[in-house]
Fold these 2 entries.
Entry 1:
Amino acid sequence: MSTLTQTPPDAPTGDRPPRRRRRVRVDWGRYHTWAVLAWLFAPILFMIAFSFNDPAGRHNITWQGFTLKWYQNAFAHSELNEAMFNSVSIALLTMVLAGGLGTLLGLALGRFSFRGKQLTNLVMFAAISAPEVVLGAALLSTFLMMNVTTGYWTTVIAHVMFCVSFVAITVRARVITLDPRLEEAARDLGAGPWDTFRLVTLPMLSPAIMAGGLLAFALSIDDYIITSFVSGDVTTFPLWIWGATRVGIPPQVNVMGTLLFAVGLLMAVINIVTARRRNAA
Amino acid sequence: MNRRSDPALLRGLTRARLTRRHTLQAGGAAAAALALASCGVGGQQRDPAEDGNYWSDKERTGNLRWANWPLYMDSERTQIQQFTEATGIRVDYKEDVHEAPSFFGQIQPKLANGDDIGYDLMVLTNGFELAKLIELGYLVQLDHTRLPAFAEYAGEVYQNSTFDPGNKYTVPYASGITGIAYNPEYVDREITSLKDLWDPEFAGKVGMFADPQEIANFGLLANGVRPGESTPEDWEAAADKLREQRDSGVVRSYYEQDYIQPLTTGDLWMTMAWSGDIYQQNAEEGTNLKFVIPDEGATLWTDNLMIPYTSKAPVDAIELMNFLYEPEIATGLTEYIGYISPVPHAQEVMAEWADAESDGERAEALREMSESSLVFPDEGDYQKLHNYVALPPDQQGEFSSLFQAVTQS
Amino acid sequence: MNRKITPYVLVLPAWAWLALFFVVPIGGMLSLSLTTGNVVTGFQQTFEVGNYATAVGTYWEQILRSLFYGACATLVCIALGYPMAYWIAFRGGAYKSTYLLLVLLPFFVSFVLRTISWRFFLADNGVVLGTLKNIGLLPDGFAVLNSAPAVILGLAYNFLPFMVLPIYAVLERMDPHLVEAAHDLYSNRIQAFARVILPVSLPGVFAGVLMTFIPTSADYVNASVLGGTHNTMIGNVIQTQYLVNNNYPIAASITFVLMGLLLVGIFSYARALGTEKVMEVHA
């Protein structure tokens, strides 16, 4: 903290450092950030463009003209619809279950000392670091030995398993930075433990819980490797795409990819609007 | 006390305890798992002999669950609609077979336990997985008295396969040829021989298949060996031949199923390819890809219909098998998928349809298809076609490893 | 609620889940790696340690290559992700979270689909290389697809968000006054960065390394979609041995060798840094 004492006394006290010296500089950081974002979005824009393509045949690989017909017929492949529905519903369930379990775990890890804490850390670490192939293979073996028929629910179980640690870590990171004095103050003011949690802790944690839940949703809907082991006769969106490469991926896949992307984009837009409102307030 | 006042001490304390205790706990968990796993993972071979009068007590249920490869029937499911109209049996059609090995991995454990796999009828290629299913006794022996259309219309080649002699367990759904496809935009000479796949002129532009059985056949044929008569020494030599091709830089990559895009866009100039893919690509997108059966020979593979022994609707399944051999039905199916129909008669029916069709475009497409040697190979073509090397399951591992050492470098 | 019991109540559900569906199955795999047999006769427990010798002896090249590709992809992620995280944290202003969402947005499009899309993009005569060739910037024979750089870039592409997020999380938590003080204390920005900001952000970098290096070195989708000859990674081998060959003992052995190597790496620097500190900055 010794550096702080050297801050000139006229330094602004606002949240942000003053900009006067930087304003004249080229903002390379901005260009870099936008360039990397462009890289991240390049193949996705490609995918979106080809959702408007009008291929004559089964292989949607060369540009042959603009059409909207795939959007009108977005749900022409009933198996693809079913796969998409499975993916989304599994991701939602995973979000809720992993979100709940992970929040409790993250809260405990960030707030309390208890026997087995290090072991919990170890297991979480191992769960994150284990290659997906082995998670899938190991789970499948266990389901078989326990005589469980693989399918929809085993997929949910697997997804919750690999997402819960991510949620817990996200929540814990937030718990650790919470000022415990706020909760102490609440208790001093007469709030019981439950009220303290509900009225003070939970609202402060909610951004982390949301972030963890969204991460779980994204990880779940994206997963191919583990799902391919434990899904039994249930087909998810990534599984269907992988299978369809054999005979050509229909443009409806691009349409669905685009719709998913649009959902994400919508969330980003909502975020921008609320950020602006917060800023204005 | 502020619990964060001395994190270093706290950490030190917890960690000191951790080393001993966590080892014990983790050890305990592992031991429990070990106990769980000590029963092993079963091969659980079934004895199919007990199926002697399997069919005697089976009745039609009216509901059939069918697993097939994606896009192996039009999206209206025309043939299924026709089947339901003709028989009243409803079909729950699922495009769940994406890769033979992973599909086998899904169903094998359930079959070992005698559990329902979720399908009463399925389609698999004549590869290692089919051989394993037969060896393990997981397929129902077909009652050929219930397959009159098969007996009447199935082509001779399809009634005498090496992988399932006498069609005891399977009947073909569709077949295809693995040959050479090339893009004449980039290749300015006629390709006729497997030697062209080894030509350094095409360095970095040649695609090969990753599947051990597929690529083994090409290595064997390139060495002048008939796959059906090959010995382990021949396999070694074929692997060496393929390794030489790889290390000379000719091969761009080993493809699973996805070589059409690179071939069309020019990443690949020449590749191992499946006949129906090339036919469809040319017919639908107006490309001018060439497909040849090389002089040295090529591979004929077959996707087969089969009934798992856990099927809940074997009678409905075998009725559908038979139905698909009705020439009109087989023709409709072929029109969409572009692979070889096991019903040679479909060629005539298709030509008749072309004559009767008023829609010029469709008539043209039907005419072209009915005359294509990729969809309806002639006798001379069949002479040059070989099945995969037929292997019992206990030799498959060795065989696969040999060729995977080439493709998974 | 009793403060002593509370943490156990909180962790119990997640613990049960992880124990039942992670720890026990991993133990089962360990047991499987010591069996012998084949899928027809079944796999019998013979405590065959030789499986590990076979696994390492046959596939050491793919194992080393995977670690190398993973390391390269991780370095690319740091090079691209750090400046990005830095800029968003310090200059993102009111739009910080929007930028973060943009970084996460590609996740909404399936991993498989994104990777396959790269193939369109990097095609020899595609929109990028084709254009550059047409204007004479690249020789006609130039190719990116089916090479080691294509695989590494694909890996970096797919896992970049895992690097950006933890670095951002650390930088964002930094006291702005500290940053300001650093700029006043040191004569140039590079010094200020090297002496103050970089040390504070290092735990974020380490967390990012964990979250990119591990999945990239065990991935198989990128190598099979974007790779060519001599680009096979150990994930491809595991997948093939498990799902294609049904050679479970060898597949399990290779998997444990890979996991062992990764865990040794994690714990050696978790120990150096203190476990809490590494995990604290995740996500």
Entry 2:
Amino acid sequence: MGILNRIAGNGPAPSAPSEPLVNLSRRGFLQGSGGLVVGVFLGGVAGCSSKDAAPAPAPTPAPAAAPPPIEPTAFIRIGTDNQVTVISKHLEMGQGTFTGLATLAAEELDADWSQVTVEAAPADNSKYANTLMGVQVTGGSTAMANSHDQMRRAGAAIRSMLVGAAAAEWQVPAGEITVSKGVVSHAASGKTATFGQLAEAAAKQPVPSPTAVKLKDPKDFVLIGTLGTPRKDSKAKTDGTAMFTQDVKLDGQLVAVVAHAPSFGATLKKVDDSKAKAIAGVTAVIPFESYNGIFRAGVAVLAKNTWVAKQGRDALVLEWDESKAFQLSSADILKEFKELAAKPGAVAIKRGDVAAALKEPAKQVVAEYEFPYLAHAPMEPLNCIVTISDSGCDIVNGEQMHTPDQGSVAALLGIKPEQVRIKQMYAGGSFGRRASSKSDYVLEAAQIAKAAATQGVKAPIKMVWTREDDMRGGYYRPAMFHSVRAGLDAGGKLTGWQQRTVGQSIAKGTPFEAFMVKDGVDGTSVEGSADTRYDIPNLQVELHTIEYSMPVLWWRSVGHTHTAYVMETMIDELAQTAGQDPVAFRRGLLEKHPRHLGVLNLVAEKSGWGTPLPAVAGKKRGRGIAVHESFNTYVAEVAEVSIDADGTLTVDRVVCAVDCGLAINPDVIKAQMEGGIGFGLAAILHSEITFEKGRPVQGNFDSYPPLRLTEMPKIDVHLVASAEPPTGVGEPGTPPIGPAVANAVAAATGKRIRKLPFGDQLSA
Amino acid sequence: MTDLTINGVKQHHDGDPNMPLLWFIRDEVGMTGTKFGCGVAQCGACTVHLDGQPIRSCVTPVSVAAGKSITTIEGAASDKVGAAVQASWRKLDVVQCGYCQSGQIMSAVALLKKNKKPSDADIDTAMNGNVCRCATYARIRAAIHDAAASLA
């Protein structure tokens, strides 16, 4: 529960003594399932692996007669072929978690990086729960934070077993044995052995206690913090062999393409499937209802291949009843938000006396902000393969909610969670979409398979969403409205801050509500504002939560996507109003927060803050800064922009400073900052989902423009050297870019953009 | 009835001649490196070469490829430009989720085959149709320059 609070920004720091990173019994931690780790993989394909090629036959446990490879834990397996296989309990969706987990294990193991491969774990809470959450979830930028101690101890334990085996075989003291780059050596006798040569003997060694194993002193690291750990998925993702769910073809599989209800809550009134059924290759047409409003109702067309299924889908003639559906248009939504913002809301934080402080401020800034709904739009449109059989249900998917999805599907099908077996594939992006709080698309696939089974169709069902299905499928970053007033005293000191936030709750009505919603306040709606580290003596943040049947979801950096924009553009305008430099103003408000100051000062230095930007003829230029903490990681960014005579904005360069504690893979961290910046930039410049009578308007990349190569700024990332426990990097690069660019635009033009996306506001 | 060559191997299609080449390659031939991203030539994830020219296979009917030679990501390494581009992609760790990268690589290979030393402006023109939601663009640009240098 700690991390669920911490996702919401309300919880303790990860190093708090009450939250041990490893809280498993020795047996639970190390014994794992022995040789059965691979045995629980069922079905016809291998899950994703860093050495992926074509689908491989299902691995089976080694026969009892043959000595098993060393596999005393659920996390590391050493084969007699000298291969070290690290088992990832987390989804690889681009963020580099396979590489990070492998680095941690290989470091303590003293393996050679080239002998290490990574494979995805099945869904199994007993072995693979996120140690900060208690369920197997990849999210909240927690993979390294929750795994670093676990994976290092697993590596150290295996290393000690290899050493023990060598000591026994060579009849030398274990203390005289060294291990380096996958070779175990005894200098005095000149004996050496590879891991593979020792694997069988090591498997018979006693498993040491995870608390007894000695971890390396950081000064002895040879992999952690170096550039010697290139990504484990680079090869497969550059030669076409990496396997995503979209690429899996099970024996007898049918592809399902779905005609979805045009709005959430709509029901099927009439279906004419005669034209669809007339198409050669269409196997069945399966109407299905929503399940507790979690996904849209639909009609699935099952066919032997994707194209035929899509042709069949497009040939359906359907009538929908939208009388009880979500029917609002974007203008209606904004009107409701504004009306609510005029009234007091649930208090998320109250410090001092904000009314008194803002009664007669020397100067003040008053502003309203509008944020749109946003689609995640990962490159791989959503999909999921479900096979229902007598023994349960097999799922092939790339997902962040490993065991919550397992439980959801079990409930839908009326079977036990352990009867739902999930094979994890690479995900072609996610940005939170495959972390469905209600398991929506996984349940939809299961619903289709269940409905098909009742019609006698018992094949594996591969549900494939088109881009339009994906973009119009709800589960958006919620639209938000903020009304803020902040005051300064005569000396330019920030004395009071009042903020009202209006929008849908991400957690309410989901299994996460119990952990994330407190006294009517969803922590994810106010993270980044209610818990601001700025020294504001009188602070009040209120929240109005509005309920619609159209579902919303976390989107890369969750609440920080809007709160950081409000906070950092307001602070910038307050600095301007106070006649102070934006960096100096922030330093004054962050005196007690050295890690914020660390990234702020580093980014100021590296960006040349305070020096004039080179002029470009015909263009206005500006530099803007933002600093923000999210997911216990600290990021500051400086954006340099140019605006030409017709209002066209170019983000020329971004300088980024990040403090994520111990840097496990510095190049992956840099890549995540680059990607987080590009992802955030797309949103603030271009992205919005709007509604016309409850129906999402945008459907593809022509109407929901992504960031393109020509729009990508030059990015320089600088890491703060730190020995603090590692924290996440998947999300924290995103929040500061919007306000940094907005502040740069204000510096260049004087214009403060408070309605997102920017669109053509600079041309007006 | 359509006869075509994919990565040097003859293939034959008896079904709907309007089926996009993408789905023939993926679902019928079983080569899944070429990706479905948008279906309307907006993202470039489906990029393959038709007689050396980069095309969006999601909007190209399979019949258009009759008698032609198709190269997909699976065939990229058999060509020295393709191999160089893949090597640069790995050297710079370009990929994140990786889903768009087959298309990115095929567009980059086509560029380098006709332009041995592309400028940033040349890269802009050749690559702007390939979307990467992970925003690996800076590394894509750097990898193209790196591959050009390695081939020089």
